[in-house]
Predict the 3D structure of the following.
Amino acid sequence: MSNQCPPASHSGEDEMPPNYNPNNTIAVIGAGPAGMSAAIYAKRSAVDVLLFERVMAGGQIMTTQWIENYLGFPAGTTPSELVAKFQEHIASLGIDVTSENIKRVIPGDLQTVETESGKKYKCKAVVVATGARPRFLGVPGEWQLHGKGVTTCAVCDGNFFRNQTVAVVGGGTTAVEDVIYLSKIVKKIYHIHRRDQLRLAGETSDELAKLKNVERVFNHTVEEILGEKEVTGIRVKNREDGSVRDIELSGVFVAVGIAPNSDFVKDLLETDEGGFIVTKKDMSTSVEGVFAAGDVRVTDLRQVCTAVADGALAGLGATKRITGIDLA
Ligand code: NAP
């Protein structure tokens, strides 16, 4: 039997085919590491899985350059290699990815998952594993020049700035990775950070310190991104003495953290002030039958390994709604 369950009709009347049992189905929203892991754990417990993805399987890690510290890959690996293995794994269990953007989840004894295209899928439990997206600075010039020199993806856009001068803004892991990656492509990088210390999750910044074409502009905030049709510079302010200066450059890589993709459930589920979904230790949320996993939830660490672990717990939690068996 295929695990691809047809939707309920647009009229709201359920038109379930004989082999579709919503009482034995969970919906997983998001096919990143958390969502794929949830799907695997549910499917192996003989539960049917609907796995939705709006863009492409893999999630945020597809915008990173290199995966380190993932168990079993001592030399690291590329995101595409890891995601290909994840996809192979779900395919081996007969789990397909359905391309749909989910608009909302309507809770009930049977949950309804409604898509942007107007389809309604019924299922017993839902796992929200929609990840997070890059945040922006909110300074003048940023939106106007987005795509015209302002970007959030070094791996995607670095090559456009070959042998040019750019800035990387931010002091977290993403910013440090971006600086290291871009240092091999561009002529010079101004690494701008609002504090004098980096925010790193266990990694070291040894490699960063060795780079010859990187100038630290720490303890500075970005006041404006300059340019008419494309980026020509950046205005920064020294937090110690208040002095302002303009730096001439052609690209600005913004790496100031992430915002959760939780808008579609923000009125349904309890979130923190940043919109990250609050979960209990079994990944259940404030609404019965709805679980959350990975970067979209409130957590201390956002890595592939933690997303996979979250997904396993959420998949089993969702499965318990159907089987009644506590497997965790
Ligand atoms: P992050 O760790 O939250 O760091 C965000 C950085 O941006 C911080 O330095 C922060 O400054 C700065 N910032 C935030 N808002 C700002 C603003 N308005 N103006 C100027 N600076 C601002 O974000 P991230 O680097 O994207 O990482 C997110 C999570 O993903 C982390 O848990 C990280 O470990 C993980 N990650 C993992 C990998 C990997 O495994 N390969 C790669 C990338 C990220 P302050 O320090 O002053 O707050």
